[in-house]
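Q: I'm a student working through a structural biology exercise. My instructor gave each of us a protein and asked us to get a predicted structure, then write a short paragraph describing it. Mine is Glycosidase. I'm not confident about reading structure output yet, so if you can add a plain explanation after the tokens, that would really help. Here is the sequence I was given:
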Amino acid sequence: MTTETHVPYRLTRMGVVMTPAAGDPNEVEGVLNPGSGRGPDGELYLLPRLVADGNVSRVGLARVVVEDGVPTRVEREGVVLEPDRGWERGVGNAGVEDPRVTWIETLGLHVMTYVAYGPLGPRTAIAVSSDLREWRRLGPALFRYQDDLDMDLNLFHNKDTVFFPEPVTAPDGREALAVLHRPMWDLGETKPGQGVRVPAGVEDERQSIWISYIPLADVRDDLAALTLWEQHRFVAGPEFPFEALKIGGGPPPRRIPEGWLVLHHGVTGVLESAFAQQQKVNYAAGALILDADDPSTVVARTPEPLLAPETDDERSGIVPNVVFPTAIEEVDGRLFVFYGMADSKIGVALLERTD
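A: Happy to help. First, here is the predicted structure for Glycosidase. I'll explain a few features afterward.
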């Protein structure tokens, strides 16, 4: 089936909004890949990943300063999440990384997915907040067993997870919350010698975007159900040259007339160990449109990136050549995308329709 390639959006750089604070030990290895949200005060906040020496990450809080309708800088307001649970720390590693934050109106809560860098490597976890400042951990994400996949998804590292902002209809017909995620099929990263293992029916072993669901009734009965994902489906894998190595999801999906707009990253180059800070890769931002009624179905996707590493800030840093979108927010009637720049700084770009 031929993929529709018309996605009527563009990204235009608007500048750098956050750089590491001189002398702050929590930021010595970069500020990057922020979540975002509006606080009870109506102000716009970023929740950046702050990286200390030794690649130890925390999640901070920073108010966005807007000048002439454009985000230009931030004012720091501290750290809101640290790797202080045993499962967020290993021997020689620790971190709470790459928060994606979705305001889910039906719950009245901000829902954060983040990567807990623990004893066995990166694992998705969930926390919730009503004010972006105090976060309640719900724990690691768990995948219900699905026999037709002939595989336990709990075996795999998983990153780039993000919730949809409103309920959808799950494959079983129930009202559900949906979440995008990106399983990493190389079990050799956890137990040497096991190699790459994929679920039944998966022919492409490259890392791709999947979707899972959580029945909304279960979440209303017990908020902890946000950690128990089911009805897993493949959504999209690498298809175009800028995604040749792998793809992964970005900011929370956003409703548009054509369905759901999902900004994602496509990766080319050579991938080192999952535990290494990559030096031979190139991350660029593209877009998918998912079907409004069935978000496991791709309606259209960009054959070329909307934004690729071209500026010095995007090409030089802790991990060079990285554009990594993680948040979208409306400011004065316009949409802005916040993105990681070379794993070192945070940039902002204007998201506009082209028709």
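A: Here are two points you could use in your paragraph. Residues 216-221 form the longest helix (6 residues). DSSP finds two helices and 25 strands in the chain. It's a good idea to check both against the output above yourself.
Q: Great, thank you!
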